[in-house]
Every structure is written in C-alpha cells, then in structure tokens.
Design goal:
Blueprint: H1 3-16, H2 29-38, H3 44-57, H4 61-76, H5 82-99, H6 108-112, H7 119-128, H8 139-148, H9 156-166, H10 169-172, H11 175-185
Bound molecules: iron/sulfur cluster.
C-alpha cells in the first residue's frame, strides 16, 4: 500500500473518531494496568463487569494486597484464566509497592518486569495511561493491518515494527485504538463488513463482501 492511501485511511479513521480510547474502564494508570492484565483472552465487556465491582473496593496496590489472593479471585472469577491472572496481579502489586513507590512506572523495561505484563500490555499502558506513541498489536490490529495491506507482517512483532515505521507522527498515539475498533466492529474476523466500511475504496483486500 502506498503512502498516500495510508494517509487517507488514517485521516478518515480520525475524522470518524477524533478522540479514540480503550473500551476498558479505568480512571488511573494502576486501574488500567490491572484491567489490561485481566483482559488477555477475555473481552473488555467481561473485564469491565468485574472491575466495576473490584475498583470501588480496591484500586491501589496496597488495597489489592489487603484483599488477599482469595479475595481478589472472588472479584475476577468470571474472567478466563482468573487463577493465574490473580496471582500475577498480586505479585505485580507487591513489586509496585516495593520497587516503585506504589506507582505504575513510565518505563517499558520496568513494566515488562512486572509479572503478567508482556510487551503488548506495556504498550497499552504506555500509550493509553501516559500518551506514548506505542502501538500494541493484538489480534484485531494484526488482522486489519494484513488484510488491508496497510502494514503487513507474519507475526505481531513484524506488524508493530511496520506500523511504527509507516504511521506518521501525528497519528501514532491514536492509531492503535482506531485499528482495534475497526477490527472489532467493521473488519471483523469471519466476514468483514466491507459494504459499510469507511475505507473500502482504499483497502486492498481482494475478497471484499457486500454486507
Ligand atoms: S473493506 Fe472490508 S476488508 Fe477492507 S478494511 Fe473494510 S471491512 Fe476490512
């Protein structure tokens, strides 16, 4: 895909949604960190349901530690893999208290050193809590980037590197939200909704649908 088309796609996505953000509910960097950690292989809707009850009771590392492992599990047991997620959140909380003055660190290295936090989670936190121009490639971004030929790659790391290279600076902070939302609601996995897609004339997917 050429530069001009990419630019036009980004402009259209921005015009349609000038201030995109995550669908995970959070009000502090710590809440976002917990929500993203819980969201692996789970839906944002499912995570929000659990955190709406958890955060009013415990939304700091100290308060989660006070809840205890079983207490934490009781709030998140509707989320897949909740046992291991609870253990990771608890260990991460202890590390935040011991090493980071109970604050979420604004550093990729420090974030990735927390249990249960990989590159994708670190990218989301740096981007959405702190405004860094990072791009967290999930299944939706991977699919949309390859299908449209906007930024092709064989794995998420390749797509991330390609996106970082081809997306102009002014769009970098928001591009990951636009692509996720586009993949979640329009360019869906099984049958993309090309008939109602705002970038249909620019997308280079060969098997477009009419719906
Ligand atoms: S035209 Fe179809 S394949 Fe292309 S981005 Fe839109 S929904 Fe996805």
């Amino acid at each position: 895909m050429n530069k001009q088309k990419r630019l036009e796609i980004l402009q259209r996505l921005r015009d349609a949604n000038p201030n995109p953000t995550t669908e995970l509910e959070f009000s502090t960097p710590f809440e976002l960190l917990v929500a993203v950690t819980l969201s692996a292989q789970a839906t944002d809707v499912g995570v929000n349901k659990a955190t709406r009850k958890l955060f009013p009771v415990a939304n700091t590392p100290e308060k989660i530690i006070e809840l205890g492992l079983d207490g934490l599990k009781s709030y998140i047991k509707t989320i897949g893999l909740y046992n291991s997620k609870a253990e990771n959140v608890m260990k991460a909380c202890k590390m935040l208290v011991e090493k980071h003055n109970s604050q979420v660190p604004q550093s990729r290295e420090a974030l990735e050193a927390l249990p249960g936090v990989g590159r994708k989670t670190a990218n989301v936190v740096l981007n959405t809590a702190f405004g860094w121009p990072t791009i967290a490639v999930d299944t939706h971004i991977f699919r949309v980037s390859n299908r449209t030929k906007f930024a092709m790659g064989k794995n998420v790391d390749q797509v991330e590197q390609k996106l970082l290279k081809v997306v102009p600076k002014e769009f970098k902070v928001d591009v990951h939200h636009w692509l996720i939302l586009h993949g979640r609601y329009t360019c869906v996995a099984r049958k993309p909704r090309c008939g109602s897609c705002i970038i249909e004339d620019l997308c280079e997917f060969k098997e477009k649908t009419e719906i």
